[in-house]
Amino acid sequence: MVTILFHETVFGPIHSRRLGSSLGVNLSPIDGKVCSFDCLYCEAGYNAQGQGKQGLPSRESVKRHLSARLKEMSEKGEPLDVITFSGNGEPTIHPQFKEIIHDTIMLRDRHYPQAKVSVLSNSTFLGNPKVVEALRKVDNNILKLDSAFDRTMRLLNRPANPNVVVEGIIQDIMQFSGSCIVQTMLLRGEHNGKPIDNTTDEEIDALIDAYRRIAPKEVMIYSIDRKTPEEHLEKISAEEMERIGKRIADAGINVKVY
């Protein structure tokens, strides 16, 4: 069974296929998972494993751990491309997300001014002005949109809030316009006997329409790279990913395939 990946608040650096040498920041518990989605492909496992007993890390704890790790890496001359907020759940859930981003930028400027600050978000907290303000300050504001259809989103991402709809997510992402990156996980398979495929012509056409409305600086499309909690999911081949990428690029959208 796939379970939480990260047992530290600051982890790595690890090599990210999308971002390079990445020092991770986990704003979820180190012994549980807290997320507003329960994606079938989540590398940290399902939400059913529980939130653990440690709770969310405090702002002071995040700052202390990050400062110590950056100082250590800098003194050793270790390379760093990016500080990435990901971890065992949705980072923007943290009630002090804005303040933590402020601290992170300050520490980045002190130790690794050339490094980028990235946030991987599922886009469900973009109605919070403090979250939006913080995301406008990071270098890579990477927002999830796996489907432009509610039926697929609900099956694939399984939002905790039943009132979450794709149109609302798209409208929320649109406020960033050219200052965001949209990431889309492409896959096919089944869950509880229900087929899943967000690579069909209908799905890609709808995503292209959404990308056009959002007008991001970049779209990232990728497929499964590690073990997933739902075992009946299929990684899309590199050849098919390239074909889909070309279709998106031919629509005038800046897309990268991973």
Summary of the model, kept short:
It contains 7 helices and 11 strands. By secondary structure, the protein is α/β, with parallel strands linked by helices.
What report would you give on this structure?
The chain is of the alpha/beta class and 258 residues long. It is built from 7 helices and 11 strands. The strands form 2 sheets. The chain has an 8-stranded mixed beta sheet with strand order 1-2-3-4-5-6-9-11. Strands 8-7-10 form a 3-stranded antiparallel beta sheet, with helices on one face. Helix 1 (59-76) packs parallel to helix 2 and helix 2 (97-111) runs parallel beside helix 3 (129-135). The radius of gyration is 18 Å and the shape is globular. The two termini are 26 Å apart.
What is the topological layout?
Elements: E1 10-16, E2 20-26, H1 59-76, E3 82-86, H2 97-111, E4 116-121, H3 129-135, E5 140-144, H4 150-156, H5 166-174, E6 181-185, E7 187-191, E8 194-197, H6 201-214, E9 218-222, E10 233-235, H7 238-250, E11 255-257
Parallel strand pairs: 2-3, 3-4, 4-5, 5-6, 6-9, 9-11
Antiparallel strand pairs: 1-2, 7-8, 7-10
